[in-house]
Amino acid sequence: MGLMLKVPLASLLMVFPLAVPASPAEVQALDLTGHWVGYLSIAAFVLAYIFVVLEEVTELKKSKPMMLAAAVIWAAIAVVYNQHGEPRLAEDAVRTLVLDYGELLLFLIVSITYVNALEERQVFEAVRAWLVSKGLGYRSLFWITGILAFFISSISNNMTTAMLMTAVVMAVGKDNPRFVALSCVNTVVAVNAGGAFCPFGDITTLMVWQQHKITFWGFFVLFIPSVINFVLPAAIMHFAIPVARPAEIKDVTKMKRGAKRIIALFLLTIATAVVFSNVLHLPAAVGMMAGLTYIQFFGYFLHITHRGEPSVPTELMERREEEEEAHPGEERFDIFQKLAQLEWDTLLFFYGVVLCVGGLDFLGYLSRASQFLYGELGATPANILVGIASAFVDNIPVMFAILSMNPDISTGQWLLVTLTAGVGGSLLSVGSAAGVALMGQTRGAYTFLSHLKWMPVIALGYAGSIAAHFWLNADLF
Predict the structure, then answer these.
(1) Most confident of 118-127, 238-247, 350-359, 432-441
(2) Cα 157 from Cα 111, distance rounded (Å)
(3) Are 393 and 106 in contact (CB under 8 A)?
(4) Residue-wise DSSP of 395-458
(5) Which residues, other chains included, contact 394 with Cβ-Cβ below 8 Å and sequence gap of 6+?
(6) Which residues lie closer than 8 Å to 300 by C-beta, 6 or more apart?
(7) If I label 322, which of 108, 175, 178, 338 is the partner at 20 to 30 A Cα–Cα?
(8) What is the C-alpha separation between 155 and 90, in angstroms, rounded?
C-alpha cells in the first residue's frame, strides 16, 4: 500500500515540481522598459484593449484578445529570462499571479453561483413584479428603483442589478422616454455607488480586501460617501422627472420553493468568508467554497424532494422531459447548472487582465508610473485621477495596476482609491458594464448622449463623495 502511494506521488512531483521561491539575494527582476520585450508587451496590451473596447462592434468576446495578450507578454518575458539564465524568476512571478487570480476566481464563482440561483428561484423577478403592480408615480419609481439598485448591488453583480431595475422602468415607463433615460442614469450611478462600500460589491473592492489593504468592516466607512455619490445627483434629477402616474400593471410572480432559504444561505456564506479571513486568518475564498457546499447540500434536498420527480429514477430521459414540460415552474434545482451559467467571459477576461498588468509590472512599467503618480503628483490627486480614468478604462485593470504598484499610502488613501475607482465609472455611460448593458437593453431610450447631458451633476456627486470621505474619515489619513 505504501509503495502504491509513493510511486504516483513521485510521478506528480516530477510533473509538477514544488515552487521554492528564490531568496532575495539570489536574483533581481530586470528592467525591460526600454527593451524590445517591453515595447512588444505594451503593444500587445494596447491592441488587446482596443478589441475589448470594440467588443460591441466586432462581437468578439473581450476575454479572447486579453488572454492572448497575456500569453504573448509572458512568453516574451520567458525568452529574455531564459537568455539570462534566470528562468525561475519569471516562473515564480507568474505563479504568484496565477495564485492571486485563483483565489479571486473561487470567490467569484461562489458569489455569482448564489446570484444565479436567486435569479432562477425568481427572487429578482418577484421584486420586479411587486414594483410594477404598485401603481406608483414616476418620481416614486425613480427613487425606489435607485435605492434598491444601491443596496442590491452591494452584494450582487452590478450589471444584473441594473438590468433588473431597468426592466421595471421599461415596463411602467415605456411611453415616457424622458423618465426611462433619467431612471437609467440614476440606476447606473446607484449600482456603482452601492458597489463601493462593501467588499462583495465589485471585483475592485474584492481585490483590495483580498490583498489586505482594508479590513472587511473597514470598507463600511465609505457608506455615507457612497450615499452622497448617489443621492446628490438623484436629488437634482428628481425635478426633471414627470409628476404623472403611469397606468397600473397587474403582474404577480411568486418565488420558487427554497428561494428564501437560499437568501439565508448566501448571508451565511458571506459570514463564513468573513470568519475565515478575520478570525482564522485563512483566505476568504476558502470560506466562500465552504459556503458553496451549503447550497450544494440544499440543492440536493430540493432535488430529492422535487414535486415533479418521476417515481422510478432510472426512467428514460424522454419521460423526464415530459414531466418537466408538464410542470414548467417546478424544474429540478441543479447547482452545477448554476455553475455552468457563470459569466465565464468576464472571469477569463479578468485572468487576462491580471497576467497582462502583472507582466507590465514585472517589466518595470508600473514602478515608473507609481513614482510619477504617488511621488510627483501625490496620493490624493493620483487617486482622484484613478476615478476619472475609470470612466474611460475598465476599473478592473486600473485597480489591479494600483495594487501591483503597492504605493506606501495610508488606509484613508486606499479607501479613497477604492471609492473613486468604483464610482468614477458613472461619469460616462461607457464607464461601467452596467451603463453599456442598459444602452443595449433600452433600445435607444438611454444613450451615451442622454447620460453625458447629466455628467456635470454626476461629477458633483463624485466630488461630494470625496469631500465627505475626507471629512468623515480624516483620522484614517
Answers:
(1) 350-359
(2) 9
(3) no
(4) HHHHHHHHHHH-----HHHHHHHHHHHHHGGGGSGGGSHHHHHHHHHTTTSS-HHHHHTTHHHH
(5) 52, 353
(6) none
(7) 338
(8) 36
Contact 373, 409 (CB under 8 A): no
Closest of 450, 419, 454 to residue 228, by C-alpha: 419
Q: Is residue 464 classed as helix, strand or coil in its secondary structure?
A: helix
Cβ neighbourhood burial of 68 (10 Å; 0-12, 13-18, 19+): middle
- Per-residue pLDDT tens for 123-173? 877 877 777 777 778 888 899 889 988 998 887 767 777 877 887 787 777
- Cell triple for residue 73? 507578454
Task: Supply the DSSP symbol for 8.
Answer: H
CB atoms within 10 A of CB 36: 10
Q: Report how far residue 60's alpha carbon sits from residue 62's, in angstroms, rounded to the nearest whole number.
A: 6
Is the distance from CB of 455 to CB of 427 less than 8 angstroms? Answer: yes
CA dihedral 296→301→304→307, nearest 10 degrees, is -120
Give the phi and the psi of residue 343 in degrees, each rounded to 5: -80, 75
Cell of 322: 415530459
Contact 116, 342 (CB under 8 A): yes
Nearest CA to 257 among 305, 200, 201, 313?
305
215-254 pLDDT, tens digit each: 888 999 999 999 999 999 999 999 998 887 776 667 677 8
Q: Helix or strand or coil: residue 314?
A: coil
Per DSSP, the three-state class of 113 is: helix
Per-residue DSSP letters for 362-399? HHTHHHHHHIIIIIII-HHHHHHHHHHHTTTS-HHHHH
Pair 259, 118: CB distance under 8 Å? yes
